[in-house]
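Lecture 7 notes: from sequence to structure.

We start with a single chain of 149 residues. Read the sequence below before looking at the structure.
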Amino acid sequence: MRKMKVPAYFGPLFFSMFLLVSIAPQSLSAQSATFFISCSTSGDAGIDTYYTGVFDIGAKPGRPRGPYAVGANVGGTWMIPAVLSQTVLDHFQAYLTQKGYKFKPGSSSACDVKPTEAEAKAAQHKRAYEGGGCSSCGKVVETGWKDTR
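Now the structure, written as tokens:
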């Protein structure tokens, strides 16, 4: 049998590869976390308030890296890529216009971005039914719309 001479750096290199493989499944499960959003139009006298469904926006928790990376801070947690609430709201309002609904445009403050679907649903419910809105406003309309762009 022939002996091979192994360079001194091979041991630490092998150990670091083993360590990386052993922690990979944990980092993959952390990457599956995402953010959820719901938005609404503004309410006004005699005008219905329309709500989107609650849906996954595909952003992951993590800090932006690099000089051109874009992220957003949501409740103390960074999400990447940044998904702008106003963009989602613009798409929703375009949908409502296409359907011929009469509504008052909302602003990005009429959106809730949360790290779990349950938190986003709770925030939407609170905004729709517990917010103490206006007594002369129209009804609350839950459209179930989700941004597919």
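The CA atoms of residues 61 and 76 lie 11 Å apart. Keep this in mind for problem set 3.
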